[in-house]
Amino acid sequence: MKRYLIATLITSLLLLSCGGDRANIITISWWQFWTDAGIKPAIVEIIGDFETLHPGVKVELVDLTWADGHDKIAIAFSSGSGPDVVELGSDWIPEFSASGHLANITKRVDSIKADYMMWDPALYEEEVYAFPWILGTRVLFANPELLVRAGYNADFSPLSWHELKKAAQEINRLDGETFGFGSNSAERHRLYKKFLPFLWANGGSILSSDARTCLLDSPEAIQALEFYIELCHTGLTDTQRRLEDAFIEGRIGFVISGDWLLKRIAREKPDMKFSTHMIPGPDGLETSSSFAGGEYLAINADCKHKDEALALIRHICSPDNQLLFCLWNRTANPSSRKAAVDSSLLAQPHFDTFVRQMKTARMPPVHTKWVYIEDRLEKAIEAALYDTKSPQQAMIDAKKEIRELLDK
């Protein structure tokens, strides 16, 4: 009987102890955008390693989509139900930091700031509100077989706008099944990224240096949109996904895309012949430009466990985990300086094109109202693309609408 009572007491204490441990576990919610089945396992592995290293912390993963992710984040923050850690596009950070929804992590990252690149989008009034994670740019993909059919050498690389448009026109004339250039239709957060390389290469800007004046009606901006529309009319206009489908099927000569397309090709058509090139400027590669973006991780200002949230971010962004993610995802541009020069990363086919293009790539203006400025710009491009307005009128109207945003 005495042994039975002792055993019962020990069991009860163990149950209470286990129950207490469960009660003391901290849950950190992380909202993120990497939902593709080919990428998600890397995210799950990184989280699993973190939970092993931090047995008192559980990470709750919530998936978002680029179609409505921004709106969901904005609504959640406004209602006080936002996540502890959130992945943000680089151009969303000013909006949420200015509204007070992001935690200031300046002092928490001072000691490691030099180890990572591209902090500028994470700054608001010279303070840090997000951590750079995965960077990226876009390059020009080409189909050598279609180039040969159009009378070019397989290794042809367009060095100017004229050369790119002429080659696209020749491919577009081959038959009714092939297209010279693949241009994006009206997709939120994507259409403007394909136009900006041409705007910047031509010396145009969206805003003045003090961010108080819209410059989209400048001759440089209008000329850039005129050329971009001419180029788009040499081929197929569709969603990014369908354009990439057509490119993989061998039906498009040129398409601007990111390093995610490398992974798709390797997975779906590993024997496909294709080449990658820097996006040409008006008169050569000297003025080449592209869109630079990035995924940043931020902490909710209302997060009750900021130390644990920051530990999660630092774990995700560690050089080893960035390298793991980039190799898994065929991503060429980690924010970690150490990971960026790792030989296993640089040895990947076509990554050198992305590395070279990244050196000329730019990010859009850091502005608290950027997401709304972006919307007006995309509508202007869309109007010109579908011939409801001339490029000049589309830009004039966009400037007027953006000016009203800036004046508010």
Write the layout of secondary structure elements.
Layout: H1 2-24, E1 26-32, H2 40-53, E2 57-63, H3 69-79, E3 85-89, H4 93-98, H5 106-109, E4 123-124, E5 127-128, E6 131-137, E7 139-142, H6 144-149, H7 161-172, E8 179-184, H8 191-201, H9 219-232, E9 236-238, H10 240-248, E10 252-257, H11 260-268, E11 275-277, E12 290-299, H12 306-316, H13 319-329, E13 333-334, H14 337-340, H15 343-346, H16 351-358, E14 361-362, H17 370-385, H18 391-407
Parallel strand pairs: 1-2, 1-3, 8-9, 8-10, 12-14
Antiparallel strand pairs: 3-12, 4-5, 6-12, 6-13, 7-10, 7-11
Helix pairs in contact: 8-9, 17-18
Description:
The protein has 408 residues and is an alpha/beta fold. It has two domains: 2-136 and 293-362, D-Maltodextrin-Binding Protein, domain 2; 139-278 and 369-407, 3-Layer(aba) Sandwich (D-Maltodextrin-Binding Protein, domain 2), CATH 3.40.190.10. Helix content is 47%, strand content 16%. The longest helix is centred in the first third of the chain and has 23 residues, at 2-24.
The CATH topology of the largest domain turns out to be: D-Maltodextrin-Binding Protein, domain 2
Major sheet attributes: 7 strands, mixed
Q: What's the CATH C level of the largest domain?
A: Alpha Beta
Q: Point out poorly predicted stretches.
A: 1-20
Determine the structural class based on helices, strands and strand pairing: alpha/beta
Can you tell me the CATH architecture of the largest domain? Answer: 3-Layer(aba) Sandwich
| Average pLDDT, all residues | 91
CATH superfamily of the largest domain: Periplasmic binding protein-like II
Number of strands: 14
Q: What is the radius of gyration? A: 24 Å
Number of domains: 2
The percent range for strand residues is 15-25%
Count of DSSP helices? 18
